[in-house]
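ok so I'm stuck.
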Amino acid sequence: MEKTPAGTSVGVDDPYEHVEICDFVTDDGRCRYAFEYAEQDPEFARERRADDFACPVADGDDWDWADCPQFRSRNHDRECLRCGLEERRVAHDDERPLLEEHHLSYAGDGEELRHEITVYLCRWCHAKVHDSWARVTDDVSPDPEALVEAEGRRSKERDELAFESAADRYDDL
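replied:
not stuck anymore, here's the structure
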């Protein structure tokens, strides 16, 4: 299983198995990185421009995500990849989020981080993955403590959205 530089588990054998698509691929299969950030990697941008900015992975070339020097994949679903717990944020509140970013790709053995591959895990699953042999792909239910925290936030949301008439607020009228 992949490890962080500190030696803790990341919960996967191959981070690229958890990638749906690169953050820079447009709906029509073009590489937005080569267009928007050409100055960062001019040679890469030139190659993509010569191929009408086509993504070499999305257009079916012989590339895999790992072959692309500018690949990045961040999960944007606001639920835990492992247990399915949904994020519940209360506006204007500094409570710790239920979900945390979990990086599947780390540099090791003196290597430089090559690609950013990030998913969301609830903080309970995140701790289990890093502190044990728990895997990101385990089919588990949310931790009871996580459910209590999420329900508490849901109650706060309902209170904020509850309608209170002026007559009820101002009894002295």
